[in-house]
């Protein structure tokens, strides 16, 4: 039985996690920037419409509800993307740790 090298395990975990974080955070950031730009553009359109009278007072609640719905949808999708990234990290870290344990112990483990 070999001793588990904690320093190597930490390095291996970092090496497994780094590309996931880099790729997913870049995607999440790009998605967020596009969505926030669209939200800001919608708010600007509403502001102009309200100021010029193109959006009637009766339509104000609808426009504000639309802005709220857009915002909620954006945040819900963002939440989902973060959850997926966390799941990827969990799986990657578990895989690395199990392999290290198997190597150190000489026993193949069955992960549930």
Proportion of strand residues: under 5%
Indicate the mean pLDDT: 95
* Number of helical elements: 2
Distance between the termini: 24 Å
Helix content: over 70%
The radius of gyration computed from the alpha-carbon positions, rounded to a whole number of angstroms, is: 24 Å
How many structurally independent domains? Answer: 1
Q: Structural class of the secondary structure composition?
A: mainly alpha
Main sheet specs: none
Provide the low-confidence segments as ranges. none
Shape: rod-shaped
Strand-and-helix sequence, N→C?
A: HH
DSSP, total strands: 0
Q: Would you write up a description of this structure?
A:
By secondary structure, the chain is mainly alpha-helical. The protein has one domain (6-105). It has two helices and no strands. It has helices at 6-52, 60-105. Helix 1 (6-52) runs antiparallel to helix 2. The longest helix has 47 residues, at 6-52. The protein is rod-shaped and about 80 Å long. The two termini are 24 Å apart. The relative contact order is 0.17.
């Amino acid at each position: 039985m070999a001793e588990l090298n904690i320093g190597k395990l930490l390095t291996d975990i970092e090496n497994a996690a780094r590309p996931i974080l880099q790729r997913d955070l870049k995607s999440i950031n790009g998605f967020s920037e596009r969505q926030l730009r669209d939200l800001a553009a919608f708010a600007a359109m509403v502001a102009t419409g309200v100021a010029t009278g193109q959006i009637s007072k009766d339509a104000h609640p609808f426009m504000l509800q639309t802005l709220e719905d857009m915002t909620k949808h954006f945040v819900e999708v963002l939440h989902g993307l973060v959850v997926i990234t966390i799941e990827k990290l969990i799986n990657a870290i578990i895989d690395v740790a199990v392999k290290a344990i198997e190597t150190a112990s000489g026993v193949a483990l069955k992960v549930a």
